[in-house]
Design brief:
The complex is a heterodimer of chains A (133) and B (416). With 133 residues, chain A is of the alpha+beta class. Chain A is built from three helices and six strands; from the N terminus they run βααββββαβ. Chain B is mainly α and 416 residues long. Chain B starts with a helix and ends with a helix. Classes of the chains: A alpha+beta (133), B mainly alpha (416).
């Protein structure tokens, strides 16, 4: 079954990391991703810009209201996500435990996917190439 | 990341909010800082054993507050202490913490903490030093190194700045909308000072000062999270991101300045550029232009140009014209002249620059640009004189070295 791993963390803390600390976390995560990549279980992964770059369109008013900032004001913010093929919840949680060792602090919300559409996006067509690893 | 590094990052991140809240409780900067220190020491003992708390800032505020109250009570037995009402909220120590940390308080706490560093009587360098010490929590040693002065001298400078701030009285009442906007713009200016103190340093000082732009961007991001709909704060953060994106390309191996048009654009940090561009996009929607947004838009035009010859100089000229209107200054006109020289040629630019001589007679960049324009027009002797004056006004070895290159080129051209 496909699972989404929603990565929550305190963004003040994450964006206080020095470049070296950030690089070290990313390097450890890359190692944790490796077996999943080799097994062909590793789907799209995304690292988001800070919530200061977010804009929210509220659909509950007509016309919709555009608000600066993220949808939810929380202590920990959604900073990225993965899509990974896991056998079952236990398997998914053991993947999350491995990731947590590489990237401490915050939380992974593990949630099964109801629909997965890979889309038509082609990396070579991007106006601004994605820079996150 | 080691456990200690994680705890350190969490404490650094929590610091502005925690010290800001403690300052509101105790209305005394020294006491607030001591309380925070105390809480950090306890955190170092407790967090590795019990695991990090879910909300580190709330934990540090509560523990710091209780520790300081104990101390105040202990001292009170020995000496006459400030009246009870000077220590606000003493009676609701037990109040649920969640309530105390509501967004509105938090916002004004952090803004107040930043704002007290912007006291108009403090010279820029003291504002920066104070902010780095109080808000960012850099050590006196780190700050002294960034300013290339001794630790004792910096300690004294910070103590004096603190005394001035305390004497001036800290504004504790919640600000009204107009006052809040004024505080925001003072704080934005101070943050940009912090940035420039690091950014304008030469290559040799980059090691000591590289922390300052990073710290300034962190403070701006914090401010923007607290005031998410302020286009000028978006503009400020975008401006700093776009300037800092060039950090790796700004100096050559010898530590000499590399001009924008000569920089290796492959070394520009794309991550910072795309975040800066995203913020400008957001800011423009508000249709309330301001100086930071315009400067960010100018920086964005450079960032978007893959090669120097792709730069949209006409648009840059128009943006500088808008900036001149908003904040007339000879330095802005000088910058605009660079764009004009690309669009209309050196003659038009020189005509724009020459009337500034009175006001910019002591300014390195004035003579640098004048020399370059005269050289382009083939007026070699005058160009040399302008370059000589630029060298005499250079404030860093890198600046002087850069002008010397131009003089060498003039001499070589004359020989050939």
């Amino acid at each position: 079954m496909l699972y989404a791993f929603l990565c929550y963390n305190n963004e003040d803390a994450v964006f206080s990391w020095s470049q070296e600390e950030d690089d070290a976390v990313m390097a450890r995560l890359a190692k944790a991703h490796e077996p999943l990549e080799k097994a062909g279980r590793f789907g799209p992964s995304v690292r988001l810009m800070p919530t200061t770059a977010a804009t929210t369109l509220r659909k509950d008013s007509d016309p919709p209201l555009v608000i600066d900032g993220p949808y939810a004001e929380t202590k920990e913010q959604l900073l990225g996500f993965y899509v990974i093929d896991c056998a079952d919840l236990e398997d998914a949680l053991s993947v999350a435990r491995e990731f947590a060792k590489a990237n401490p602090g915050g939380a992974y919300e593990v949630r099964p996917l109801r629909l997965f559409a890979p889309g038509t996006l082609k990396a070579e067509n991007l106006a601004e190439p994605a820079t996150a690893k | 990341m080691s456990e200690l590094a994680w705890i350190d990052a969490a404490m650094t991140a929590a610091r502005p909010q925690a010290v800001g809240a403690l300052l509101r409780y105790f209305r005394d900067l020294d006491l607030a800082e001591e309380a925070f220190q105390d809480a950090c020491l306890r955190a170092l003992r407790s967090w590795p054993q019990k695991g990090p708390p879910r909300d580190p800032a709330a934990w540090l505020i509560m523990v710091g507050r209780n520790a300081a109250i104990d101390q105040v009570r202990r001292r009170r037995r020995q000496e006459a202490l400030p009246e009870e009402d000077q220590i606000s909220d003493l009676d609701d120590v037990e109040a649920p913490l969640a309530e105390r940390l509501d967004g509105a308080d938090y916002r004004d706490d952090v803004l107040r903490l930043l704002f007290i560093c912007c006291h108009p009587d403090l010279p820029a360098t003291q504002q920066i030093a104070l902010a780095l010490r109080i808000v960012s929590g850099l050590s006196v040693k780190q700050i002294a190194r960034a300013f290339l002065v001794g630790e004792a001298a910096m300690e004294q400078r910070i103590t004096r700045a603190k005394a001035k701030v305390a004497g001036a009285g800290v504004p504790f009442e919640a600000p009204g909308p107009v006052e809040r906007a004024e505080r925001l713009s003072a704080v934005a200016a101070m943050i940009y000072l912090v940035f420039n103190e690091g950014y304008s340093a030469g290559a040799a000082e980059q090691d000591d000062r590289s922390a300052l732009p990073i710290e300034a961007m962190r403070l701006a991001r914090l401010l923007l999270r607290l005031f998410p709909a302020e286009p000028e704060i978006m503009g400020l953060l975008a401006l700093m991101l776009l300037q800092q994106s060039r950090a790796a390309a700004r100096f050559d191996a010898d530590g000499d300045i590399v001009l924008l048009e000569d920089q290796n654009r492959a070394h520009w940090d794309r991550r910072m550029i795309v975040e800066g561009l995203a913020l400008i996009d957001k800011a423009i929607r508000h249709r309330r232009r301001g100086p930071y947004q315009i400067q960010a838009a100018i920086a964005a035009l450079h960032a978007r140009a893959l090669r120097p010859e792709d730069t949209d100089w006409a648009q840059i000229d128009a943006l500088y014209a808008a900036l001149e209107q908003l904040e007339p200054s000879p330095v802005v006109t000088l910058n605009r002249a660079v764009a004009v020289s690309k669009v209309k040629g050196p003659e038009a630019a020189l005509a724009m620059v020459e009337p500034l001589a009175n006001r910019l007679g002591g300014y390195f960049y004035f003579f640098g640009l004048k020399g370059a324009l005269l050289a382009q027009l083939g007026r070699t002797a005058e160009a040399r004189a302008a370059y000589d004056q630029a060298i005499s006004l250079a404030t860093t070895p890198a600046q002087a070295a850069h002008i010397r290159q131009h003089l060498d080129r003039l001499a070589a051209d004359a020989r050939s």
